[in-house]
Structure formats: C-alpha cells, structure tokens
Amino acid sequence: MAFIPRFLVRSTVALAAGLLLLLGPSGCTTASRVGVTNDFDHSVNFRAYKTWAWYPQQPRDAESGPAKGYESFLDQRIRSAVAAEMTRKGLTEVDKAPDIYVAYSARVEDKQQVSPYYNGMGYPYGYGYGYYGRNYSPVTQYKAGTVVIDVIDARRKELAWRGTGQAQVNQNTIDEAESNRIVNGILSTYPPGSNAQR
Question: Out of 24-33, 78-87, 98-107, which region has the weakest mean confidence (pLDDT)?
Fold first, then answer.
C-alpha cells in the first residue's frame, strides 16, 4: 500500500518540476525581452577604438527634439543610456577628434501580432481539425519601441557597426526604464566578439 502514495508523490514532484522549468523562465523574461540584431564591418578592429563623441549631424528623434534646438525627454534618455554603456565598456567621451562617432534613431510604432488559437490538445482550431469549422486567429495590438545605434569610424567617415533593438512599450514614447533596457540590450552586442561573429 505504501507503494501507491510514494509513486503518486514522485509523479507529482516530477510534474511540478517540469512545469517550473517550462513556465518559470518564460514568465520572468517576457516582460523584459528585447529583440536585438546587429551588423558590422568585418575588417574593423573594434578594440582599437578608445574615444567617442556624438555624431555632429544627429538626426532628430521621434519627438523632434534636436531639430527644434532643445533635447526632448526621449533624446535625453537615449543619450544618457548610451553614455553610461560606453563608459562601462571603457570608452571615453571627448569633445573633438574621437575614434568613433555614435548616432541613434528612435521611434514608436503600432504593431499587430496574429496568434492561432489552440484547443488545449496541441492542435490549432482550423479547417480539417474536427468540427470547429474555421480558423480563429486573435489579433493583438501593441506598441513597439525601436532604437537603432550606429557607430561610425571617425577617420574613414564610414559606418563600422549598427545595432537595432525593439521591445514592447506601454505608451507613445519610450520611458526611462525602457530606454535603458533597449539600449543595454543593443550595446551588449558591442564590440563584436570576433570577426567571425555576425
């Protein structure tokens, strides 16, 4: 008789552990997820860059800050986050004759995500699946904040590296926490680890 309860306890513990492994990480990372991509000039020795400055003809941000002669809140947030990350990477900001220039662009867009509805048995509702008849694909509306950061070789005046980060945001601008999160995500891939990395 003791065999049955022990078997049930072991099965329950194994099931609970499996669910924690499956659901735990996704529950923690969904809110802080930043999609990051980058590309770079494979002939560049990024370790040789020691100093940086903002690109002198920085394009205006999504809130038109620099073009109007003052810094918008978004511009302040992005610049502050970039400066902090560059300092962490051992690069020094200078007023003139930098090794690299840094420029960025930022925008918030309305996006849609279409997800098939699943019936709980691992099969989507749809044509050919039982008697449900037709596809049901709910559309989720959300706002996506996108930041692009460019690193320009100051001597050659050529793009050396570009990183792009996108994350879901809560409003029509990218707030301070989201700015830090997106910029940190992008610059976590700079400098490239090796010329073979892409």
Answer: 24-33
**Tokens at residue 145, please?**
């904040």
Q: How far apart are CA 91 and CA 118, in angstroms?
A: 49
pLDDT at 160 over 80: yes
Structural contact between residues 63 and 76, judged by C-beta atoms closer than 8 angstroms: no
Chain segment 66-89, per-residue pLDDT in tens: 545 556 888 899 999 999 999 999
- Residue 170 — very low, low, confident or very high, per pLDDT cuts 50/70/90? confident
Question: Which residue, 93, 79, 9, is CA-closest to 49?
Answer: 93
Per-residue tokens: 196: 């073979």
Cβ atoms of residues 75 and 66 within 8 Å: yes
DSSP 125-160: --TTSTT--S----EEEEEEEEEEEEEEETTTTEEE
Angle between helices 176-187 and 73-88 (to 10 degrees): 40
Whole-model pTM: value is: 0.66
Alpha-carbon torsion, ordered 184, 146, 47, 157, to 10 deg: -150
* Residue 181 in tokens: 């999160």
Q: How far apart (Å, rounded) are the C-alpha atoms in residues 183 and 105? A: 11
